[in-house]
Structures are given as structure tokens and as C-alpha cells.
From TrEMBL:
Keywords: ATP-binding, Nucleotide-binding. One of its GO terms (cellular component) is cytosol. This is Asparagine synthetase B. It comes from Halalkalicoccus paucihalophilus. InterPro entries: Asn_synthase, Asn_Synthetase, Rossmann-like_a/b/a_fold. PANTHER family: ASPARAGINE SYNTHETASE (PTHR11772), ASPARAGINE SYNTHETASE [GLUTAMINE-HYDROLYZING] (PTHR11772:SF2). Pfam families: Asn_synthase.
Length: 351
């Protein structure tokens, strides 16, 4: 069984050693019994530590280990290509625009968009008339940004205001589903789970997300600065390092959404978008004054300019979920002077 692609397509990609054969990722067992996971790990896959057994969810195994992205059984078959850089920014914007347009042809049936008001989720929303859902605590940046962007786009918005009770109820669910208890992972997972949970309650079965844009297009400060957090000495090299972190991040995100009984859709991780992004370099990716430069210019073809240029915080901070998770940990006696006090709090909820 393969998630994300027809087995024959995956087999052709393996035969051709083509890492980007025109999908949004795939993982599972081939018809000959071999296991495969695409180059960016866009679908989770796990094996027993003993080597006996595999599953799409770690909760289905006794000692789950992530199956490595780009592998077929024990062999690395897929690696990201290193294509030539676009000669001009104009050429780059046109190519990224074309790739986005192709990837955004979304079927609105049974679909909700996770909408935080930033350019990533706004571009995804532009490809469908599906409802827009945002989550956050009262007064959060994400609720305000989503209202402004939805208004600029002429779209209605469903707001999900978090409470401490929501966090306390959801923490054990996402921690068990993802196998993670650290503050950052749990904070991100909570935001996705709560949106997906509301979507399911409202009768929807799929959630479109903007995952991948920051990694592919230069959305991180460490990429702009090429600082101690990366080993590369160029913006392009740093971007490729960040892209390599996608399998681990997507595993968390997908498992969190599925824990609510909803299937994620990530159009910005379409192979066509990835191919275009890999041809960007230097200021096409990011400058001191502007991250995701070419991506934002391409976005103007899909969303109002003020939405394309909006700066936004990471979801766990913009929603205030990280702040309130920390507050709950301290109220429960896990003070900041303690090592990993939020992790200790999360683990206490699992006992």
C-alpha cells in the first residue's frame, strides 16, 4: 500500500531515480514488498526497531523508528537535485508563479484551509473557495492577521478561540500521536490539531495547509544571516539544509492533523513548486530586509499585495499557544528554572 501516489508511479520514479516525479510525496510498501519514502518525507512511515513490521502511524508499532526519507528499504535512492540557478529574478518569479498556479488547483469538496493570515496560507486559500479557519487565544497576532487578510481577500473566516481547557485536553492527544513532548513540537502540533478538530466537528475531512514555503523559499532568519545555526556558507546552501529538516517537521504536522481524524493537503510541497524553488539563490530567496523575496512577488498574482507582503510570527507564537502552554506548566509547578519545564509538564499529562 502506498500513500500519496500510485504504486506504478513510485516504481517508475525508483527505476529512473527521479526524486520529483510529479507528486506531493509518497510512502508505503511497493508491490514487491519493499518500503519507500519520498525525498522530502512528505508522508510519514515507520518501522519496528527490530525490523519486523511497518506502519503509517507510530502508535501502531511497539518501538517505532522513522523510515528515512529518500530511501527504498536500506538504500538511499532519491536525493534532491542541484539545478542551475535562474538567470534573472524576473525569470524566477515567472517560473514560481507557474508552479504555484499548477499546484493550487484544489478540489474544494470536504476541504477547510488552515488560515493564519500570512502569505503561505493565503496562497493556499486562493486556490479554493473552501472555508478558512484560524486558531488562537483572544488578542493573538494570528487572529488579528487572519481577520485582516481574509477581509482583504473578501473571504469569510471562522475563528477558533483557544482556552486553557482546550490546551490541557489536546496536549496528551498530540503528544501520543507524534511521540513528542518538547515545547516547540507540542506548540506547533496543538495549533494544527485544534484547527483540524474543529474542521472534523463541522463535517469536513481534509485540511489544506501552507507547510513547506518557509523551508523552500528562504523564510528563516538563520538562512538570511547564514549564522551559527547552519553549516553552509551561502543562502542557497543554508536553504538546502533547512529543506533537509522537512521530513521530521512534516511527520509531526501530519500526525497531529490525522489525530483529529482529518487528512492534510499541502499544495506548496508539490514537486513542481519544489523544482522551481531549488533554482533560487541568494537575494531571490532572502535579503536582510525581505524573506521569501521571489515567493512573495509570485504571490501577488494570487492574493492582494498587502497580504503577499505581510510578516507573520511562527504559528505557536502568533497564536499565543506557546505562551499559554508555558503559563499552564508554571501554574502546575513546573517553573522556568527547571530544565525543560514545559516538557516535564507535558509528560505529567501523559501519566
Amino acid at each position: 500500500m502506498i500513500h500519496g501516489a500510485d504504486p506504478a508511479l513510485a516504481e517508475r520514479a525508483i527505476a529512473d531515480r527521479d526524486p520529483l516525479p510529479g507528486t506531493r510525496g509518497f510512502a508505503g510498501r511497493l508491490r514487491d514488498g519493499r518500503l519507500v519514502r519520498d525525498v522530502l518525507g512528505r508522508y510519514p512511515l515507520f518501522v519496528e526497531r527490530s525490523g519486523e513490521g511497518w506502519a503509517f502511524s507510530p502508535t501502531d508499532l511497539d518501538e517505532p523508528v522513522s523510515f528515512p526519507a529518500g530511501h527504498v528499504d536500506d538504500e538511499r535512492v532519491f536525493s534532491l537535485p542541484d539545478p542551475p540557478v535562474f538567470e534573472t529574478e524576473r525569470e524566477a518569479v515567472a517560473a514560481v508563479t507557474d508552479a504555484l498556479e499548477a499546484s493550487l488547483a484544489l478540489d474544494s469538496t470536504d476541504l477547510v484551509v488552515a488560515f493564519s493570515g500570512g502569505v503561505d496560507s493565503a496562497i493556499v486559500a486562493s486556490g479554493t473557495d473552501a472555508p478558512l479557519y484560524v486558531v488562537g487565544f483572544e488578542g493573538s497576532h494570528d487572529l488579528a492577521a487572519a481577520r485582516e487578510s481574509a477581509s482583504a481577500m473578501g473571504r469569510p473566516l471562522t475563528e477558533i478561540e483557544c482556552t486553557h481547557a482546550d490546551i490541557e485536553r489536546a496536549v496528551p492527544v498530540v503528544a501520543r500521536a507524534t511521540g513528542r513532548t518538547n515545547a516547540m513540537d507540542v506548540g506547533i502540533a496543538l495549533s494544527l490539531f485544534l484547527v483540524a478538530e474543529r474542521a472534523r466537528e463541522d463535517g469536513y475531512g481534509r485540511l489544506a495547509v501552507g507547510q513547506g514555503a518557509d523551508e523552500l523559499f528562504g523564510g528563516y532568519e538563520k538562512v538570511v544571516r547564514v549564522d551559527h545555526r547552519v553549516t553552509a556558507d551561502s543562502v542557497r546552501g543554508a536553504t538546502r539544509e533547512v529543506i533537509a529538516s522537512l521530513p521530521d517537521q512534516l511527520e509531526r504536522d501530519i500526525l497531529s492533523i490525522r489525530a483529529a481524524g482529518v487528512e492534510p493537503i499541502a499544495p506548496l510541497l508539490d514537486d513542481r513548486v519544489v523544482r522551481a524553488a531549488l533554482r533560487l539563490d541568494g537575494p531571490m530567496l532572502a535579503t536582510e530586509g525581505e524573506r521569501k523575496r521571489v515567493f512573495r512577488r509570485a504571490a501577488r498574482e494570487f492574493v492582494p499585495r498587502e497580504v503577499a507582503e505581510r510578516k507573520k510570527k511562527a504559528v505557536q507564537y502568533g497564536s499565543l499557544i506557546a505562551r499559554e502552554l508555558d503559563r499552564l506548566a508554571r501554574q502546575a509547578g513546573y517553573k522556568r528554572r527547571m530544565d525543560d519545564h514545559v516538557t516535564q509538564y507535558v509528560e505529567s499529562l501523559l501519566e
